[in-house]
Design brief:
With about 200 residues, the chain is an all-alpha fold. About 85% of the residues lie in helices and about 0% in strands. Helix 1 packs antiparallel against helix 2 and helix 2 packs across helix 4. The chain is globular, with a radius of gyration of 19 Å.
Length: about 200
């Protein structure tokens, strides 16, 4: 794009951002191809048909969740940027308190309790952006992908990584570092999507 528009600002950061922007669409196409392949195998082998159809269903669901999660990542990033600009100290302290509650559930190995506070943190960050349209849109979309977001932390390794990411997100918010929190929140959703997709072979 930079070359076509006669700009000379092609950097590694710009290239990475462009790849991340195109990656979800590429993944979705690959998932849809996998669905067709699985259906073909199911029809030709008969006996493993149920297993193949279950795999088809899983791929189909994740493929259609991909687009929503990509939008959620963009909304998260925007909300984080606006929260750095508009959140009051009281709101940041509320998010910090929720964060420590979430850490306590993680330490106890209580995923359900952890997830409850995790969701409250994300919603509170969006609410602290001061944009009601953004908040309502985010809350509606979040309801469609809650199960997928929960599944993303089923492995201990991913769960521990998510906690470290939340530590960094809170640190960026407290410092009101808008650029950093945009990147962190966007990456956070990308990692969740990767975790959900990687769980497919286990179906």
């Amino acid at each position: 794009d930079a070359r076509e528009s006669s700009r000379d600002d092609i950097t590694m950061d710009n290239a990475v951002i462009e790849v991340l922007r195109l990656l979800p669409a590429v993944v979705l196409v690959l998932l849809e191809i996998s669905i067709m392949s699985a259906i073909s195998v199911a029809l030709s082998t008969r006996m493993p048909m149920v297993v193949n159809l279950v795999t088809c269903l899983a791929i189909f669901v994740v493929g259609h969740l991909t687009e929503t999660l990509v939008v959620m990542g963009a909304l998260d990033a925007l909300a984080g940027e606006l929260a750095c600009l508009h959140a009051t100290e009281s709101q940041i302290n509320e998010i910090r308190a929720l964060h420590y509650e979430m850490l306590a559930y993680h330490a106890r190995g209580d995923l359900a309790g952890y997830f409850r506070f995790n969701q409250q943190i994300h919603l509170k960050i969006v609410q602290s952006s001061g944009n009601s349209v953004l908040f309502n849109t985010y809350r509606q979309l979040n309801g469609n992908v809650r199960r997928a977001r929960y599944m993303a932390n089923l492995s201990q390794e991913r769960w521990d990584a998510a906690v470290r990411e939340h530590d960094e997100i809170l640190s960026a918010l407290a410092a009101r570092d808008a650029e950093r929190i945009k990147r962190l929140l966007s990456d956070h959703l990308v990692h969740k999507l990767q975790s959900v997709i990687s769980a497919l072979p286990a179906v």
